[in-house]
Design goal:
It is a single chain. About 45% of the residues lie in helices and about 20% in strands. It has 27 helices and 29 strands. Strands 7, 8, 9, 10, 11, 12 and 13 form a seven-stranded mixed sheet that branches. Strand 18 and strand 19 form a beta hairpin. It is globular, with a radius of gyration of 36 Å.
Length: about 900
């Protein structure tokens, strides 16, 4: 069998582009329905069509790719469904920015022309992120790629809207929503980013009706909303205020009568314990207003200016109004005090404008009937969160869920399929209509579009052809696992669950695998404002996709955030190079080898590595099944680097180079090939490119490693005795190496070593003494434990074996003493320098704490090294 070799140096850019093209050209990502295999499916969390790959995307898709590649190799009928989200607001802003450069707005060109412009933009830029996912190595079924605005998904959206409306689960109503004055639309909670900002708490005195000198002081962060107050709430058990419940206050500057009422929502410990209630401009106030039948007064317009109801402040910008109002309150004696107060301020995710809670007429989904079954499937264990702690996050939200605002006042998106007639009828229809079915009059369609998350909630089944009963839907739904971040459990995961239960009468996935955020080295969230984002494509350009993939997965534990360290990138790059170099060595030494004619005269080292390999297979498979992908990768790293490369290859060299041991050479070749070939398969889901490049050069069966059979578990290879004996030899060799290094024995110089071993251990050394000779550069002599102990020798004890390294003739005592004396002198100077800095009061006062601590640690390390050298010099003086 012809054995190929690989280049001297691994070039990730050349190998990755070559092998991804090979996989796509051969249709290896594509899945057809195969009824004789078990199904395994994942739907990709659809990235925004406007998006660029960031570290969060990279981690999310790497985890999915690992799972799908492993299951593909394990013989499942696998489908990884890709697609993108139309990202209503984000995409509209992009196109509006493009129009602005032409001096135009969307209103100048009209709705129809604007939508045409968006589709043109999508055709030009919509494939950017999917091409970036290809560079990451994502093995999606690109032949099935979907888009939330394509014909099939659009039909599914309309079907769901109409069906929910017909059941009374979608309705129109005046309720409070997050409103962006810049984008002029309602927003979902996930489109609002809350930032902790320094602000103020304004304490304002409200006069008690009928009393000239009695006041109730309230505290607010938004004094401009005072103009919309229609009540004041206190906790019913608050002794300071309970006697006032049922009485009225007079609103400063306006004169409106405000009822005082009790409500358990009020926190007596915050502010003054009395809360101004503005139902039109605060979601919690709105709920209290509903409970206590308060009137709703809108004082802020959708564009962020003050409304007519604001009286003398009408027309002012909301922040200009704040200044004027506070000044007027102060002048008229209503402002008690102003204190600094940091609080979370909501900003529009797309344009960073501060959002305004605002009552407006919107479309809503009635959530309680949908939430109850979605809660049950998780609490009963039919859907499992990994890790389990996120189950509580999910259930807490569903138990306290509010109705979902699904309408958006933009043009790009699924237009709401509702038409209005002058006769007063609202018609919701699966098909477009032009006339009223009740009176025959002309109708107008609702101008709003649906929240992007509405179409995303249908993703697990709309992508598979629903509402048609397709073969893919029957085969791959419910999907196997959803991989996503914890930040969208509410906004996407929960909604897919209740939509799946409602329209498929089945859960959409069996597991929800939650990962954390990728933060910078200081633990901060990566963001444009901080300038600390790291472009995954830049990492791929420099180090390759496999390096990025392995670095991200080895730093990952389910549900936890991880930090990005360039040192870990370098470590993963070194691992890739280690695999490449070791594989090149193996390939160079497979001359004349054919797996069909394998010789299996196994030595201790052979039995040991086969045993460790068998356990690695079992552990890797089990960890993937448990979604412990970081632990699986760590185990592979340890096995490949430490056991296969650093130990087994070294033990095999003697047999590979022995011309007179044909069977020994053939056995070593077989074990080297067998373990490498199958370990590459285990590693393939994590590092697909380098494993394919090497595997193609090894003797193998099949077109590609990505469709090769996953290594079977082989418990019969586990050999506890071989592992125990090899561990003894390895520890002995390491001890000898350490002693030689301590006294600077040149690597090429053989050293006499005396091993005093227990009687039951002597056969282990006698039968395998060659390992000690070759790997420790030693001339060993085995004696019993009762033998006389050598004089003038370094010693170490390993598992009941006493190891002696006689120093006579091994080192030049005078030369070594001189070297150590010089090193001791340099250490003394360094210790004196650091001690001087630490005793300098000016340095200690000005230097950062971490700098001072670093100097103290360094001083301690130098003193410990100083003590060790002194001890060594005393020992040498006796020789």
């Amino acid at each position: 069998m012809e054995i190929k070799n690989i280049p001297t140096v691994y070039d990730p850019q050349a190998e990755e582009s070559k092998w991804y093209a090979f996989w796509e050209e051969n249709g290896l990502f594509h899945a057809e329905v195969e009824k004789d295999k078990r199904p395994y499916s994942i739907v990709i969390p659809p990235p925004n069509v406007t998006g660029q790959l960031h570290m969060g995307h990279a981690l999310d898709n790497i985890l999915q790719d690992i799972l799908i590649r492993a299951k593909r190799m394990q013989g499942y009928n696998t489908l990884w469904m890709p697609g993108t989200d139309h990202a209503g607001i984000a995409t509209q802003i992009k196109v509006e920015e493009m129009l602005a450069k032409e001096g135009l707005s969307r209103y100048d060109i009209g709705r129809e022309s604007f939508i045409e412009r968006v589709w043109d933009w999508k055709k030009q830029y919509g494939g950017v992120i999917t091409n970036q996912l290809r560079r990451l190595g994502a093995s999606c079924d690109w032949q099935r790629e979907r888009f939330t605005m394509d014909e099939g998904c659009s039909r599914a959206v309309r079907e769901v809207f109409v069906a929910l409306y017909d059941k009374g689960l979608i309705y129109q109503g005046n309720r409070i929503t997050n409103w962006c004055p810049r984008c002029n639309t309602a927003l979902s909670d996930i489109e609002v980013e809350r930032e902790e900002k320094p602000g103020h708490l304004y304490y304002v005195r409200y006069q008690l009706e009928g009393s000239a000198d009695e006041f109730v002081t309230v505290a607010t962060t938004r004094p401009e909303t005072i103009l919309g107050d229609t009540g004041v709430a206190v906790h019913p058990d608050d002794k300071r205020y309970c006697h006032l419940i049922g009485k009225f206050l007079i609103l400063p500057l306006i004169g409106r009568r405000l009822p005082i009422f009790g409500d358990d929502y009020v926190d007596p410990a915050f502010g003054t314990g009395a809360v101004k209630v503005t139902p039109a401009h605060d979601p919690n106030d709105f709920e209290m207003g509903q409970r206590h039948e308060l009137s709703t007064v809108v004082v802020i317009n959708p564009d962020g200016t003050m409304a007519d109801e604001a009286g003398q402040y009408a027309g002012l910008d909301r922040y200009e109004c704040r200044k004027a109002l506070v000044n007027d309150l102060k002048e008229q004696g209503f402002l008690e005090k102003v204190v600094e107060h940091s609080h979370a301020v909501g900003h529009c995710q797309r344009c960073n404008t501060v959002i305004e809670p605002l009552v407006s007429k919107q479309w809503f989904v009635r959530m309680k009937p949908l939430a109850e079954p979605a809660l049950e499937v998780v609490t009963s264990g039919r859907i499992e969160f990994v890790p389990d702690r996120f189950t509580k996050v999910y259930t807490n939200w569903l138990e306290n869920i509010r109705d979902w605002c699904i309408s958006r006042q933009i043009w790009w998106g699924h237009r709401i399929p509702a038409w209005y007639c002058e006769c007063g009828e609202t018609i919701v229809s699966r098909e477009d209509i032009s006339t009223c079915p009740h009176c025959g009059g002309k109708v107008e369609q609702d101008p709003d579009v649906l929240d992007t998350w509405f179409s995303s909630a249908l993703w697990p089944f709309s992508t598979m052809g629903w509402p048609d009963e397709t073969a893919e839907l029957k085969r791959f739904y419910p999907t196997s696992v959803l991989v996503t971040g914890y930040d969208i459990i509410f906004f996407w995961v929960a909604r897919m669950i209740f939509m799946g239960l409602e329209f498929q009468e089945s859960i959409p996935f069996r597991h929800v695998f939650i990962h954390g955020l990728v933060r910078d080295a200081e633990g901060r969230k990566m963001s444009k404002s901080l300038g600390n984002g790291i472009d995954p494509l830049a990492v791929i350009d420099k180090y390759g996709a496999d390096t990025l993939r392995f670095m991200l997965v080895t730093g990952n534990t389910p549900g936890n955030d991880m930090r990005f360290y360039w040192e870990r990138v370098e470590s993963s790059r070194n691992f890739a190079n280690k695999i490449w170099n070791a594989s090149r060595f193996v390939l160079m030494n497979l001359e004349g080898f054919d797996p069909a004619d394998a010789v299996k005269d196994f030595s201790l080292a052979d039995r040991w590595i086969l045993s460790r390999y068998a356990q690695t297979v079992a552990e890797t498979s089990a960890n993937i099944e448990k979604f412990e992908l970081g632990e699986a990768a760590r185990g592979l790293y340890e096995f490949i680097w430490n056991e296969y490369c650093d130990w087994y290859i070294e033990t095999a060299k003697a047999r590979l180079y022995a011309k007179d041991d044909v069977r020994g050479r053939a056995t070593a070749q077989y074990v080297l090939w067998y373990v490498l070939n199958n370990t590459l398969k285990l590693l393939h889901p994590f590092m697909p490119f380098i494993t394919e490049a090497i595997w193609q050069c090894l003797p193998h069966d099949g077109l590609s490693i990505m469709v090769a059979d996953w290594p079977a578990e082989q418990p019969e290879l586990v050999d506890a005795a071989a592992e125990e004996q090899m561990a003894l030899l390895m520890e002995t060799i390491k001890a000898i190496r350490n002693m030689r290094a301590e006294v600077n024995v040149p690597p090429g110089k053989k050293s006499e070593v005396i091993l005093l071993a227990a009687e039951e251990l002597q056969p282990v050394f006698e039968l395998n003494i060659q390992y000690v000779k070759t790997l420790a550069a030693a001339v060993p002599e085995i004696r019993t434990l009762s033998s006389e102990k050598p004089d003038n020798a370094m010693t170490a004890v390993v598992n009941g074996v006493e190891i002696y390294l006689p120093l006579k003739g091994l080192i030049d005592v005078e030369k070594e003493s001189a070297r150590l004396t010089k090193e001791l002198d340099n250490l003394g100077k360094e210790i004196e320098r650091i001690a001087g800095k630490l005793s300098n009061a000016a340095f200690v006062a000005k230097a950062p704490a971490e700098v001072i601590e670093r100097e103290r640690v360094k001083e301690q390390e130098y003193r410990e090294k100083q003590a060790a050298i002194n001890e060594r010099l005393q020992y040498l003086a006796k020789l």
